[in-house]
Amino acid sequence: MEEIALEATGLSKHYRRTRALDNCTVRVPVGRVSALVGPNGAGKTTLMSLACGLRTPTAGEVSVLGQRPDNKGMPDGVAFLSQDKPLYRGFNVSEMLHAASKLNSDFDEDRARRLVADADVPLKAKVKTLSGGQRTRVALAIALGRRPRLIILDEPLADLDPLARKQVMQTLMSDVAEFGTTVVMSSHVLADLEEVCDHLVLLASGHVQLCDEVENLLDNHRLAVGPGIEGEPPFPRESIVEASRTRRETTLLLRQSTDDGPPDWDISSPSLEELVLAYMRTKEAAK
Ligand SMILES: Nc1ncnc2c1ncn2[C@@H]1O[C@H](COP(=O)(O)OP(=O)(O)OP(=O)(O)O)[C@@H](O)[C@H]1O
């Protein structure tokens, strides 16, 4: 049976009246690079915090690498890069790496120093003087220095320029290739994820909209472009995820795994971005 890196079953987290997560079931197999996507407030940070034991569920269960997280620290083999990247502001980068190595028994300080050097962050620079992007690179070096089997990253690309985004993704991918690390990463930059992710979790308003291998998702959906007709499109209503119309053209995202359709319709495979945006728009429209 396939090993599961992150599993949530019937997971809910409510903050007073807000249902940040509601009865969510998620499975990310070991070895995947999983994109956790969804609009602002969808529940992505909440899901990651529950997986790392930083918050406790209101209902349901979550496990990472077969362990139930608790409030006694990060589960074994798991590293988390949070949005606020907690680093000691008064330390310089070298001291920060040294502190990380003292706090983590198996810490690979050489690797962390190499990653910081690759990012051109000076070892002597004080953490408080670093730019947001440089702080991300240092925090990522520390997270990977812990040699995690599962790394969970909350919007790691947010502060980065396009070149740095590519470099961070390359760093992660070389870790995946070398050590088989599982990556779960939230981001709003779908174009960056499309190249590297082989698994996707889409959350919207605290619900799981999609959770599957990217290949399966793409195989099981089609984009259909046809005439700008009035009335019902010539496809089963239950297969239509989203429909948009102009006077000249109708565009449908279909839950369909073949290229079958009427001759005046053009059927093609959607990009991951088209697929995700269509699901996000339907959820928005249903609010
Ligand atoms: N500590 C908290 N107290 C009350 N409500 C909270 C708390 N943390 C999150 N929420 C609410 O829970 C919902 C989900 O928030 P969460 O931060 O998990 O979303 P997100 O998908 O990570 O959003 P973003 O993309 O904007 O970072 C939001 O409505 C948010 O306002």
How many domains? The number is 2
CATH class of the largest domain, please? Alpha Beta
Q: Number of helix segments?
A: 8
What is the C-alpha radius of gyration, as a whole number of Å? 21 Å
The CATH architecture assignment of the largest domain turns out to be 3-Layer(aba) Sandwich
Largest sheet: 6 strands, mixed
The number of distinct β-strands equals: 13
Q: Give the strand order of the largest sheet, numbering strands 1, 2, ... along the chain.
A: 5-6-7-3-8-9
CATH topology (fold) name of the largest domain: Rossmann fold
Quick one: CATH superfamily of the largest domain?
Answer: P-loop containing nucleotide triphosphate hydrolases
Give me the strand/helix succession: EEEHEEHHHEHEHEEHEEEEH
How much helix is in the residues? 25-40%
Q: Which percent range describes the beta-strand content?
A: 25-35%
Unreliable stretches: none
Shape: elongated
Cα distance spanning the termini: 39 Å
Mean pLDDT, nearest integer? 91
List the ions, cofactors and other small molecules found in this model. adenosine-5'-triphosphate
Structural class by secondary-structure content: alpha/beta
